[in-house]
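dumping this here so i dont lose it again. seq + smiles for zinc ion
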Amino acid sequence: LLSSIAEASQCSVKGLPLIRNISELPQDNYGRGGLSHITIAGSVMHGMKEVELWLQTFAPGSATPIHRHSCEEVFVVLKGSGTLYLATNSHEKHPGKPQEFKIYSNSTFHIPVNDAHQVWNTNEHEDLQILVVISRPPVKVFIYEDWFMPHTAAKLKFPYYWDEQCFQVPQKDEL
Amino acid sequence: LLSSIAEASQCSVKGLPLIRNISELPQDNYGRGGLSHITIAGSVMHGMKEVELWLQTFAPGSATPIHRHSCEEVFVVLKGSGTLYLATNSHEKHPGKPQEFKIYSNSTFHIPVNDAHQVWNTNEHEDLQILVVISRPPVKVFIYEDWFMPHTAAKLKFPYYWDEQCFQVPQKDEL
Ligand SMILES: [Zn+2]
Ligand SMILES: [Zn+2]
């Protein structure tokens, strides 16, 4: 019951204070090793329809999947450093060998729409903490196992909700 | 000539590096006392179509105008503290007396669409630094001189570009 209440409190848009302390927001790794994800403003939790804002921390050696999406995405690096891998030739049958870009504290970048990309904490000494802005939630994402996987084999995940477990909370707890 | 080059460099989406150091981005007060505004990702400078991201610093005592807009807006307070004034009864003929909310470092909030609001650095000892996310640029904003100005008298500003001077750069410098 306690766990059910805790879970519900991560899902309800009602009853949330207008001003929220980010350090008190729920965080989870959503099954991804080395990740801490906090939804600062999200469609399910906060009723956002046009933008979402996330705070993500990657332990040394951890990374996002290789993926692409048609929504816009802006990153701000708050702490640490790492590498952005970006395949700009997504017109081909597969993403192909990506370009590498060093990312660092107080840097920003945005991902060209539909380009396959991956953010990797390649700094073995420090966490990488980033703010992520995306448009038009929920994200419709194509996930690749490697850079030479054909686009036609990429795994579609839609809707990609961080808080999708909210949809599995039974409407009537008493049953 | 130097100034013309500097100005053009703030306006061109071309030639910008993919990874940008936020502390090296152009900042301006755009005629508003106490403000420092940096467009981290914008429609004019970076070709964003669905979201913009700004970094704004308010000196003690400075504030945004009282305003409302139909786009979504999310704030993250990075440094300092202050007050959010929010009139949620915008159905009336004027915004009316706003509610006051204390905002503080590492807090977040979003503005209900079309509610009149104002962010004020009411801390006389410290700058207030905020990250601002907005959807659907450019912003179409209605500006109020006070909370009891009728909606019909609010001043419409559209498009509200921070970098609107970019549109005034002559296409052909040599003429
Ligand atoms: Zn992405
Ligand atoms: Zn606003």
